[in-house]
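Intended use. Records like the one below are meant for learning the mapping from a protein sequence to its folded structure. Do not use them to infer anything beyond what is encoded.
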Amino acid sequence: MTKNKIGNLIAFFVTVVVVAVLALLLRGQNPQTTVGLDSPLPTPLPKAPTATITQPTREPEPTVTRPPEPTRRPPTPRPTLGPPTPTPEPLPTLIPEWDTFFYVTSGTSERKSEIYRVQASERNRISTEGMLIHFPEAWGQRTAIKGLYPSPDGRHVVVDWVYGEGGTFVSVIDSQTGRVSPLFGNASEIDQRVLFLDWAPNSEEILVFGRSMNSDLANKLWQVNIYTGALVSVGATHKDGINIRNASFSPEGERIVYAYTECNTCPNELWVTDIGSSDRKLIYRTDDYRIEDVQWSPHGEQIAFVLRPHIAHNVVNGEMWLIEADGGELKCASSVLTSAPELYHGGFRITWSPNGRYVAFVTGKTNTQDGNLDWFNGLRTNVSAVDTETMEVKEMSSFKSALVLTPSWSPQSDELAFMVNFESPHVYQPWVALSSSEVERLSADSEFIVTSDYAYPEFVWLPRGDEK
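Structure written out for the chain above:
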């Protein structure tokens, strides 16, 4: 190889090396530019707007006013209810200016349920001993009291009671004397198995329903005079009225409203009928719920009722509704707790104030999935009231861990009494929500306690005919 070729080869290699070095230097000074690429995923579509579900008949969620948690003290385990000596008959004369209460409590194992009368002086203090109402001899171990229902004038109290599997009966207590009488009288040969529905505004008659087992009054509504026992068939019926469970008088006493269904899971209907005629009007119908606890307002403009799911559970959440008496505007007032009609206890009833402005009811939630409770084991409730003019809901009690039942209005409509169970099994205390929004025991100076070992804790505040 000649010297010229060797020199050219060396020059070539030097040139390559120089070019390579320059290229590396330039790469370090100018970073590589990344070219933007289209995403392999498609561009996401914008989210569709959420559909708005309109419920035309349901009102906006009502405003709730909550009172403070009241201070309480543990009750005496087992007090003595009533005097140690037998209660006289007739009972001592009532003091007209004082408030009067009737309540049900447990008796002995031979006499399961007992009814007492007690009075309270001003500021809701119990001032008299409980007076035991003398029961008929037929009342014994198998008697369960379903409810106490005072007349509009407070002179009488209906006792709705059940005797074993023998059916439902009605007796009437004279609140002044304490004497108890069968609805149709002791000498009557009429089958007395009837279901109480409502008092007539005149306080002299009541509305009852004869169940299918009744040989004389089956499947019809009857208006019965409590003094004479005279009875009259009321209004129109459907298929002999076999499935009428709830009914209520209008304030003037000339019409009734009743709930009707053909079977336990069939559609439910609300009818208004004139007493003594076949004229009737359908004002509401539902395919999905049972209509329970129908009550005409004292002022006559509205009818309150409860919608309960078509299930047989003891205690479930339902809804209280208000409808104009002519079938007009329909409003959902609040969720409520409601008990099955087969449950022998009326502690979950809704109740109108005497002035017709408020409706009280029990609220809470069942703590079991199916709602079946062993005597309300673990159930926690409170009592509320809705103002039917403003639809505002006010909590009348705010216990954090209590079972609150049986709301009952004062004659002036400004206070509400109810029974409260705290931790002690089967022990209830009467409390009252005052007009000042405070909540206190009905008898702060004495141990006034009702027991439920053998009886359901019914408690009613008697009206006064001259106060609304």
